[in-house]
Amino acid sequence: MTTFQSQPAEGEQPPADSVAPRDSSSQTPTSIERLNQTIKGFVERWGSIWVEGEITSWNVRGGAVFGRLKDLRSDAQISIRLWSSVRARTPADLRVGDHVIACVKADYYPKGGDFSFQVSAMRHVGLGEQLERLERLRRQLRSEGLFDPARRKRLPFLPHGIGLITGERSDAEKDVLRNAELRWPQVRIRTLHAAVQGERSVPEILEALQTLDADPEIDVIIIARGGGDPQTLLGFSDERLVRAVAAAATPIVSAIGHENDHPLLDDVADLRASTPTDAAKRVVPDVGEQRAVVQQLRSRLTMRLQQRLQHDIAQLQHVRSRPVLRAPERMVESREQDVFLLLARGRDRAERRIHDGERRTAELRASLRALSPQSTLARGYAIAHTAGGAILRSAEDAPAGTDLVVTLEHGAVDATSLGRHDSTTRASS
After folding, report:
1. d(CA 51, CA 73)
2. Residue 287 and residue 295: Cα distance in Å, rounded?
3. Which of 105, 207, 313, 341 is an S-S bond match for 48, by CB 3.0 to 4.6 Å?
């Protein structure tokens, strides 16, 4: 696209790449007609170019068509014109939302200053090319792990609130609401309408998804459309929508009714439903079925309790029928004689042990008495020891003048040593 630069200062020539006439100045300004003619001549030198986009406007006026093409990856748009001669050579089924390629040439209308592109050829982008592009994106997203079953969130058994994104007054909306209310009359559904094909579909679905995902009362979100050909389902394979669904905190159910080809939304959603009706059945439990299940569980619980009580009563009766419980005193009586015998045996053993102990004590006492110094003293012997307590064992231990203590059988006497006693001398004298 050509950009117009700022007006040069007085006396300054326009830049070399400027479209404006070079001889214009504040004293001699150029005319608008001349400027437009200059622009027209500049634009016509661009020639023709092939572009790819989506038809967002298609108005037929007197055989000619005035419309707009939108870029597939951004909001950039251009105005297009198809004269009747060109329209006769283009497919008759072209309409808003179609993905096309066109040969266009820039056209500037000097009288009104309008800028547009004349179309010399236009055709649908081949379905094979679209599918190939989708498959490339599918492989990329799969390599990133967006299709991994492990990342899918489980749907709640009975959601408190259900978010529904679908077309306004569409059959898909009617199918979801009708089947959900039939299965659970108290179900709460918050519906946000969005375009389900064309250029507005992806932005509106993204906005609705963001709103419902931020609602704390919404436990699951259904994105529903009543099917269509692969061309009309392209919006549900948009990378922006697929990544937004993968990043959502709320479980997402894809209910895009179709048969063979399926959009990328099916692969990244937490649950894929074949139709909007199937989505309602998968998300909302059937109150009749649940009541039947509860009744069945109650019956099974009652039967199991009765069986358990009967089993326990039979076990108790069996235990009570045992002899030890019918006459518990018999167990004591049968053990009474055993206790008596054990007591008698214990008494005999104790008496024998006491008798043996007394006999052994007497023997030890006699031995002790026989070895006791007291017995020696009783036979007339005495023990002499010094005043310090040292027992005399030799005459040399008590020289003359040594104080001694002589212990007898009964008491002790003090004595003084006169020295060594010569028994031979004493005996002869």
Report:
1. 13
2. 12
3. 105
Categorize the per-residue pLDDT at 327 as very low, low, confident or very high, splitting at 50, 70 and 90: confident
Q: Where are the beta strands (DSSP E) in 21-142?
A: 48-61, 64-70, 77-82, 99-109, 114-124
For residue 9, pLDDT over 80 is answered with: no
Distance CA 97, CA 230 (A): 12
Q: What sections of 99-165 are H helices per DSSP? A: 127-143
Residue ranges of domains in the chain = 32-125, 138-149+159-285, 286-321, 336-369, 377-428
What pLDDT band is residue 20 in, cutting at 50, 70 and 90? low
Quote the pLDDT of residue 248. 96
The architecture of the domain spanning 138-149+159-285 is 3-Layer(aba) Sandwich (3.40)
Say which CATH superfamily domain 32-125 falls into: Nucleic acid-binding proteins (2.40.50.140)
Determine how many CB atoms are found less than 10 A away from the CB of residue 173.
21
3-state SS class at 46: coil
Return d(Cα 192, Cα 202) in angstroms, integer. Answer: 14
CA separation for the pair 187, 207 (Å, rounded): 24
**Between residues 409 and 121, which one has the greater pLDDT?**
121
Helix axes 276-283, 171-183, angle to 10 degrees: 30
Q: d(Cα 245, Cα 241) in Å, to the nearest integer? A: 6
Task: Report the first-to-last Cα separation within the chain, whole angstroms.
Answer: 170
Q: Give the mean model confidence (pLDDT) for residues 136-160.
A: 91
Distance CA 429, CA 423 (A): 10
* pLDDT value of position 128: 60
Q: How many helices (H) and strands (E) does the chain have?
A: 13, 13
**Per-residue pLDDT tens over the stretch 264-317:** 999 999 999 988 999 999 999 988 888 889 999 999 999 999 999 999 999 988
* Main-chain phi, psi angles of 117, to 5 degrees: -125, 130
d(CA 26, CA 14): 12
